[in-house]
Structures are given as structure tokens and as C-alpha cells.
Amino acid sequence: TPLTATQQTQTTCPYCGVGCGVDISQQNGQLLPVAGDSRHPSNFGRLCVKGSALHETISHNGRLMYPLMNGQRSSWSQAINLIADKIQQVIHTHGPDAVAFYGSGQLLTEDYYVANKLMKGFIGSANMDTNSRLCMASAVASYKRAFGSDTVPGCYEDLEQADLLVLTGSNAAWAHPVLYQRMVAAKKANPDMKVVVIDPRRTATCDLADLHLAIRPGSDAFLFTALLAYLGETNNLDHHFIALHTEGFGSALETARQQCRSLKEVAEQLDIEASDLAQFFHWFADTPRTVTFYSQGINQSATGTDKGNAIINVHLATGRIGKPGATPFSITGQPNAMGGREVGGLANQLAAHMDFSAAERDRVRRFWQASNLAERPGLKAVDLFQAVKRGEIKFLWIMSTNPLVSMPDADDVKEALKHCELVVVSDCMADTDTAAAAHVLLPAASWGEKNGTVTNSERRISRQRGFLPPPGEAMPDWWIVTQVAHALGHADAFNYSHPADIFDEHARLSAFENNGSRDFDLSGLSGMSRAQYDAMAPVQWPVNAQYPQGRQRFFDDRRFYTDNGKARFIAVAPELPLPRTGGDLIMNTGRVRDHWHTMTRTGKAPRLAQHISEPYADIHPQDAALRGIEDGSLVRIFNPRGSLLLRAHISDNQRTGEIFVPMHWTSRYASAARMGTLTDNSVDAISGQPELKYSAVNAEPF
Ligand code: SF4
């Protein structure tokens, strides 16, 4: 066969919040191995193992091809009509709050936008939450407390411009590998750069560390609050910045002083050497270009919001924000965790970085011409599934996520779904744990089959572009939601024929009566033609008259989005996690390098199973010896909520009294490895983010 011209497509990797650009090439209808997009400013051609195996994870094996109702194949119109009828009946009988949607950071922004609009603008409830609640809700809450807005201040380039890189609650080498590659290259180029890793475990990221602080789990807020006290004590403060651009410094410092009286006491609290703590404080105090990079080890905590603010406090105290190489920097877990926040995909948000104040409700109502706008915030994920269990939610639609694996106390969530009158799951895969609990299954188009945008951890909006036809009757999520909206009688408000139409409306809403009062502004991207949308280059928001090419850093102008324009210190009185019952070991959870979340796609690539092929538990030699557990043997990890069967990895990378279990394995790959069945469902009181890093368990030989 003569070779045809190579077809090229630029798209974005869906496997983590770094958001790398990917080059897709096809020849004679065959997909060639993917490559990194050298022009994409977030990865400059780099890919990690997961990204470079993308073409191996898109087979149709296991795909959901057709709508199913109670296990029987149906047409789209039958399924859509059933869903719309049920929503109407539930609203009529029980009110709109008996309807709920649960979305995902795997949805594209356009998918998210229409789902959020339907629920909050037309069904009349804000019971739309998302698995981003498990990912970034605490970072959002701490940004809003400090800045008055959910604004990520920095950019990836800051990682290369820093002289001190502090990674806390992050195993970037495995969870955000391309950013880690950028850090490695930066340290090589700047041998004076210091890297401090704060993590109870010795992880692969520690290979880059000049100092590893293996702190007691959950004690991060003590460390950063003590650092604030130290900066005050040693007068390493930016007095000018504090006086002109912040408020609340005095009470934050006083609280820090009361909580952290001496370095020795704090080191005991953290369970590390006082000399190591002093070294870190000294480096921090002396290094103007400091980035504090944090992820789920901070966020997935019952005090995650305070932890985030404790980090932001030390950056405000030293004026290290809005400058090259100087910023607090939360890193999202999912490819579009940020896009969900932008459209209002969390239950306590309304839309486009607007909440439920009277003025913002009025603004959104007028823009959407909403027939039934939600009046108040809805239920956050853990509360939402508890309401399902109590029978208060009669209709639940789960989109692109697998909460029967990922939610805390996952078996309780499984039980809860039995109390729903109708559970709808839209997914690309047929046999997830959650799909098994659905009455109606809707086949969703997957990565490579649909068009839209995602926003990565540095606020960069990139296009995902389709280059393959969806299999069977699979359709994009935005189309599915739009069809239901039409069947509910809202055709005028959901008159979209392409994701470009939705993006345009999203951009216009972000700019509507904005006048610079909100950080999120895409006015410069509204009014694009279909061709311009198709060709859209990656860009960091905002994109408006002032920043037509996007904005690299926020707060370089010292203007925050609070009422008085000043950043707020939050007085943090740090708390250690409460003692847990149910076992004498503390279970920590997280990602492995080569799998994505519940493995529905990465589980398909043999290459990605080579790194770690089966679920395991890392356990310290002393804990293993105490229990008669041998390296490589099977071990049962259990508590009153459930039981897992895992391979024991005996390793002194663990602290004693703690074990680590990866988050990925599901019933499809291992019948007893769903770590969510053991995790604690306590949540952060402000953000509602669950504690997924601190559950009490037991371990015994199997
Ligand atoms: Fe994909 Fe993340 Fe790897 Fe980049 S770092 S290639 S976005 S998984």
C-alpha cells in the first residue's frame, strides 16, 4: 500500500494535572507512537511513561458501546427519555434537591459547563459535586481564604527559577513526572538550588532532595506554622509587603508563637531531628526565590485547608508571591481539576468563579436566563453520598468517575446507591465497579474521540482534540447532557451543536459584568470562530484586554481579590489528626508511577504494568517482623470497614507504625484491592475534602 500523508493532531495528555501537549500521528489509518509536543509550553516535548503509552491504552476492549437500561441494550432516545422523565418525577415529588450529579476531573470543560448549568440553573439544585472534591477542594478553600479567589499564583517556569524548592505532600517523581523532570533539569543547571522534600515516606522524589523531612503524618501545618514563628523571631519578614498588601499578620504570628514555642518542641511534635528542622528554616529564611509545591498529601486531610493557609502564610510573610521563582503552588491531580473549578463544578460554587451571593446569583441567572437557579450551595461529595444512603437523593448521575473505588468508605457508597431510585452512569468503560451498580449506562466518548479544553495546574487551557471516531454509539458527555436538557424542555438554553459553542458561552460568562473584579476572565477567547477554536493554542488564563496572550503570574501587581484588595493571613492553630480506632497502623495512600486512577485505561497497556504489576502494601521491617509478615508474601490489611489482600513490600522507606497502599486497583484487576474500602471518611470542615491519607488499619499474614 502506498504511504499516505501523515495526519498530525495536537492534543493534551489526560493522565495528570501537568497537562502535557501530545503529538498524534496517523498513517494509513494506523496510529503511530505518540510524542511530546515540543511547542507546548507546559512540557516542551517531554512525556512520562504514561503519556508515551497513550496510543496503547485506547483499544476498544472493555468499552461501553451502547446505552443500556437495566442491562438491556436501548436506543439513545429511550435512555434520554427515561432519564428526563425520572428527573421530572423526582423534582415533582421530592423537590430538586433529590436530584444529584457527580462529575469528574476527567470531564472536559465543555462537558462540565453544561452539566453544571443544567443542574444549578435549570433543575434548581446545587447538588452537583465532583471527584475534584477528593483532589483540590482544600487548595481552593485556602486560596479563597487568603486571596479572595481561587487563584493559582505561579507557573511551571517558577520551578526552574527557584533557588529553594520545597515539595510537601507530593511525590512528584511518580504523580507529576514531567514537572519532576523539569525540576531535575533545573537543579542540574543550578547546582546551588536546594530541594527539600517533606513527606512521611521516602519516595522516589527524595532522590532529588538535599534534605528529606520524614515528618509525622498529618503534621505539615505544625511545620509551616512553626516556620512563620521562626521568620517572625528572626525578623526574616517583608515588612513593606505585609504592611501595604496584607491583613491579619499580627494574629497569625501570635497564634504561631503560642503554638510553636521552641524548635526542639516542634521537632518532637514532627518526630524529626531538630537540626534538620533548623536547616530547613534557615534555608527558607535565606532564600528569596522559594517555591512551595504541594499536592494531595496536603489536600487530602481533615485539616487540609489550614495546611494550605499555613503554607501561603509563610509566602505572604516573606513577600514571596507573584515573583519569578517565588510562589506557593498547589498542583492538581487530574487533567481538568482546574477546569471543573472554573465552570463551578464543585457544589459550593455557582459558575465562572462566582458563588452563591445574591449579586452573583442574580448575575448568573440573567446570563443563563435560568428558569430555576439554585439558591444555596449543594452537598459536597461525602455528604452527597451520605444523603444518597439516607434515601434523600432519588436520582443520581455519575459521570466519568468510579466512586465505588475512589470514595472513602467505598463499600458504604456501594450500599448507598441501592437507596437511589435511578442511578445513571456515563462512562467510556463497561465494567467498572460503579457501572455495575447503575440502572442506566450511557456510553461516553473517550480521550482521542472528542473535542474540548482542559486547564492544567498552571492555569493553562489546552485543547483536547479528537482524532478517532467513537466506537459503537458512544457520544461526548456534553452531547449527552444537552440531550437530557432538551428532553427536560430547555432546548433554547442548551442550543449547542459543537463544544466551540459551549466554550464561547463559558468565556462570555467569565467576562459578564466582570470589570476586573474577578480573576477568571476569558473575554479574549470569546467570539472565536469554529476554526479559531480548532486552532486554539495553549494559553494561561486570564485572557482579556490587559492580558491578550494570557497571564503568567498573578499578584505581581500586589492586587488581591478580597474586598480591600489585600491578601489575608489566616491564623492557623495546627492540629494533629485525631487518634483513629480500627487498627494499630496508619494507612497512607497514593499513586504509583505508571497507572492512572482506577486503571480503566492504563490497565490495558502491558508496558504500564511492568513497573508495578500488582497491588501491594509497603510496610516497615519492624512492623512486618512484629506480625510475622514476610517480604513478597500476601498480607491482609483490614479494619472494621473492610479488608484488602495485597503483596507485602517490606521497606524502611516507611516510618514504623505506617503503611502505604496504592489507590489504583479495582475489582476488575484484583478482587480485594480497593483501598477505598478502608479509608476514613472524615472531612475537612471548610473544604469538605476527605482524609485519604490517615486511616487506621491492621495487617496480618494471609
Ligand atoms: Fe501525561 Fe502527566 Fe505524564 Fe504529562 S506528566 S505525560 S500529563 S501523565
UniProtKB/TrEMBL annotation:
Superkingdom assignment: Bacteria
Cofactor annotation: Mo-bis(molybdopterin guanine dinucleotide); [4Fe-4S] cluster
Domain annotation 4Fe-4S Mo/W bis-MGD-type: ranges: 6-62
Protein's UniProt keywords contain Chaperone: no
Keyword line: 4Fe-4S, Iron, Iron-sulfur, Metal-binding, Molybdenum, Nitrate assimilation, Oxidoreductase
Record-stated family: Belongs to the prokaryotic molybdopterin-containing oxidoreductase family. NasA/NapA/NarB subfamily.
Protein name according to UniProt: Molybdopterin-dependent oxidoreductase
Organism: Thalassolituus hydrocarboniclasticus
